[in-house]
Amino acid sequence: MSLAPAKNRAPTPKPWIEAIHAYVPGKSSGADGRPLIKLSANENPLGTSPAALAARAAAVEPSLYPDPDSTALRRALGELHDIDPARILCGTGSGELLTLAASAYAGPGDEVLYVRYGFSLYEIAARRCGATPVVAPDADYGTDVDALLSLVSERTRVVFIANPNNPTGSFLPRDELARLHAGLPSEVLLVVDQAYVEYVAPEDDDGALALAAAHGNVLVTRTFSKAYGLAGERVGWATGATELIEVLNRIRGPFNLSNSAQAVALAAVRDVRFVEHSRLHNLQTRARFVQALEALGNHGIRPLPSEANFVLVTFEGALTAEVAYNGLAERGYIVRWLPGQGLPHALRFTVGHTHDMDAIAAALRQMAEASK
Ligand SMILES: *Cc1c(COP(=O)(O)O)cnc(C)c1O
């Protein structure tokens, strides 16, 4: 059989790449293009640390390549968290590092395991390297350690867990995370994605950093995109055994953090007060929002417990999640509806300013009462 003339043939992506659906980001405008108050991407409603903004203005000139190793930033992170900088790797957002972790340790024929309602990037990371995603059932939207462990096979290479998890907000306590780790063979990499860790009460430490310091098969990722208010600068970092960090370092983008990203993140690391202020604002406003929604239980509206800067709310009554989503958009708010993640009956609300969350709770009550 002869091939068609070259000019008629297009490059063919690998079959595992064909299977990927592009990541769906939170929207920032309504169907008519009108800008809305954005509570769909878990960004920090308090903005960015003023010190970080000042550092951006002063960043090195753009004609020069950045420090390829983000040396000053890794040193500052090491000091803050008491970690040897040799065990820290910075990434273009933690998303780069999650993807690298899958690519380095899994490939065609291997399995990558995570929970149902896990972060949507894990499926993309698994498929991108040709591995097979394996999804463990949830326990009332939370992580079920036994379900995860029962799906570990001789093909499992990487287990992803976000703690707290997005989009559910659920949190796996220290003893459960330790139990998950203890149940995994030592050649399986456990990735603990702590994108929202700054919002967790300090006394509820899940112990992931200690696991990463003590074991050769634990990688912890963190980000500047949420509590640090730097989503637009694309900065994340990971820590684990030196051997893990060295492997990921070989396959990352060579100059992955721009000059301004490094300068801004360095200033942000030092401004611990901004992060603490963000945590307290979130704690208070989230509790107030959850309390307001708990009063709507008779309408089938249920806020799930959250340790993060968002709340997942299920709608099982006359007011559906889709109708609520559209009603809120009409009132100027864009939140996250996740039918593509198996959650057509739920909305995820980023915790914004208190007056906005009050207005949303009041609007939901109004819509629920009108749809009885
Ligand atoms: C937002 C988020 C991240 C952070 O992604 P970046 O690439 O660092 O912006 C990572 N994991 C989870 C679960 C998230 O929700």
Query: What integer is the average pLDDT?
Result: 95
Q: What is the 3D shape?
A: globular
Taking the alpha carbons of the first and last residues, their distance comes to 66 Å
Q: Largest sheet at a glance?
A: 7 strands, mixed
Radius of gyration: 21 Å
Strand content: 15-25%
Helix fraction by DSSP (H/I, runs of at least 4): 25-40%
Structural class comes to alpha/beta
Quickly count the helices.
Answer: 13
Give the beta-strand count. Answer: 13
Secondary-structure element sequence? HEHHEHEHEHEHEHEEHHHEEHEEEH
Query: What hetero molecules are bound to the protein chains?
Result: pyridoxal-5'-phosphate
Strands of the biggest beta sheet: in what spatial order? 2-8-7-6-5-3-4
Low-confidence stretches: none
Pathway: Amino-acid biosynthesis; L-histidine biosynthesis; L-histidine from 5-phospho-alpha-D-ribose 1-diphosphate: step 7/9
Family: Belongs to the class-II pyridoxal-phosphate-dependent aminotransferase family. Histidinol-phosphate aminotransferase subfamily.
Domain Aminotransferase class I/classII large: 35-361
Modified residues (N6-(pyridoxal phosphate)lysine): 226
